[in-house]
Amino acid sequence: MEIFADAEFWVLVAFVVAIAYLVRKATPPITGALDSRAAKIKAELDEAQRLREEAQRLLAEYQRKQRDALSEAEAIIAHARAEAERAGERAARDLEALLERRHRLAMERITLEEQKAVAQVRNAAVDIAIAATRQMLAQELGAERRSALIDQAIAALPQALH
Question: Which residues, at least 6 apart from 91, have a Cβ–Cβ distance to it below 8 Å?
Fold first, then answer.
């Protein structure tokens, strides 16, 4: 009975009761805050995954366009060379001046087509680099800035594809 008369015992009891009360009252808001934060993080991860998949799809599309452009350039070059050979054969039957003039025209066409093909490949490479840069920036920027950049990129996409 001497323990109930001791002031330290009652201070301990009051302290335990106060701690229990605080734990009971503080637990739901803390767990709610943690749950909402977890949901927000999950949503951000889902959005990041979606953006990553979209970026990969765009990258694959640009790589396909680049391959198509290279194939088309090779076909154009092959066609231009075939034209140059036919023009050379016709020119061999004609006068020497006609041969020289047609050969020069064919070589100019080949050079022009090669320049066009190189320009198309360069443009496709620039588009791929831009898409990769956008993806990298999207991963490193905050949510507000990322949303603004995504909106800008979506608005500029039709112009970039044409």
Answer: 98, 99, 100, 101, 102, 103
The pLDDT, as a whole number, for residue 100 is 75
Number of domains in the chain: 1
Can you point out the beta strands (E) in 25-133? none
Query: The domain containing residue 124 runs over which residues?
Result: 47-161
Question: Is residue 131 assigned to a domain?
Answer: yes
**In whole angstroms, what is the distance from residue 95 CA to residue 90 CA?**
10
Locate 9 and state its tokens. 């015992």
What pLDDT shows up at residue 112?
93
Structural domain includes residue 155: yes
Task: For the beta carbon of residue 67, count every other beta carbon within 10 angstroms.
Answer: 12
- The residue ranges of DSSP E strands in the chain, in sequence order, are none
- Kindly state the DSSP code that residue 141 receives in the 8-state scheme: S
> In this structure, is residue 22 part of a structural domain?
no
The tens digit of pLDDT for each residue in 90-116 reads 767 776 776 678 778 999 999 999 999
Rounded CA-CA distance 84/103 in Å is: 7
- Asked if the structure places residue 70 within a domain, the reply is yes
Select from 152, 75, 162, 153 the least CA-distant residue to 123. Answer: 162
